[in-house]
Amino acid sequence: MDKNNKVSIPVIRRLPRYLRYVNMLESEGVKKVSSRELAELLGTTASQVRQDFNLLGGLGRQGIGYPIDELKRELEQRIYAETPLDCILIGAGSLGSAIARYLKNVAKGYNLIGIFDNSEEKVGAKLEEYTCLNIDTLSEFCINHNPVVAVLCVPTSAAEQMVPELIKCGIKNFWNFSHYNFAKLNDDVKVENVHIRESLEALSYRIKHEIN
Amino acid sequence: MDKNNKVSIPVIRRLPRYLRYVNMLESEGVKKVSSRELAELLGTTASQVRQDFNLLGGLGRQGIGYPIDELKRELEQRIYAETPLDCILIGAGSLGSAIARYLKNVAKGYNLIGIFDNSEEKVGAKLEEYTCLNIDTLSEFCINHNPVVAVLCVPTSAAEQMVPELIKCGIKNFWNFSHYNFAKLNDDVKVENVHIRESLEALSYRIKHEIN
DNA sequence: TAGATTGTTAATCGATTAACAATC
DNA sequence: TAGATTGTTAATCGATTAACAATC
Description:
6-stranded parallel sheet, DNA-binding
């Protein structure tokens, strides 16, 4: 919509961060903030803050700064879906359980509507008030409930099988904790990867080679 | 050590990915791979693969490609610590439990030596064969066992309190799942952030604004 | 030899930072 | 008015991609 096309991925990844700090400042009763102050809090530059906020539509005022309430409203309006996004979780292991809990109790803009697993011991179990469903019932579930996001908390090999099926079910958005590679997929499929292993290995690399 | 200073953060984040694919190819019995083939698998460019692999010290051979076994050896040698890095986990909630499990059973190059929490119900409980310890015993534990990495699976407010204490205990490396901001900290402190919330919010932004 | 593919330099692209006129 | 701070353009920086001689 309108000029959002301008917003690049690096900027998008910074917006939630800004929102966190804006919320923090608001809860402290702060009414306005300058790009310099915010940059200092975040450990970035005032230039970057201004460049980024500019995309939000000129909320700032010369000599004054940015009004917290407007920043918050604008950021929330941009980030959160108007109607919560219905999502399903695939994989009810320990990570899946943690993520289910997060989606249910913390995440804004999402609505967890089902949890699936393929193992006998998991199916039927309770997770956060959800009964874990058999993966075989997935397509039927999707026809009835039309989830828009799938959260992948399964091993990569399982994701390999699941993803084509999920896409067949009409799901185009993925929050991916597996290492399944969406690279060569359709352009209209959106994926946010959380690659825990790669993060941990980057850390050991940096420790070993003293890179900050 | 030697020419590793050259390796930039973006490259470091790609190395674990290369290693995954190299392992995959090896398990399929493949003996050599060209930059073009690997690029296709990963969804990147042959140029980037060659640039990156060049930093590993010229393993490739013109007209042939890169030998899988040497690639694997070199990548592993770079990424994993010679001696596993002793680490402690702070926060035994559902995410902490999942991460403990991962560190114990999956992660290479790390050795989980203790789990801490501040809540009465958690302390004394068993997680993956570890008995959850009281956070008050942290500094004593650190004096005795000298962990080198702390994994933060606590809320941001708890991290705010904990981090200075952990640093006082001599810990300089952090795998951070909280939103505590290390920005203005000492230069010799290394942090890898896994910001789940920000990833999820970036996804909803992209869905809302149709950005791929 | 001819074909393939590297290593590496050069060109391009995009993101970050700096600068400064506009203006509150 | 003077000081502060924005919005925005220009400069810089770094990362990615392209090109090609070297060589297996």
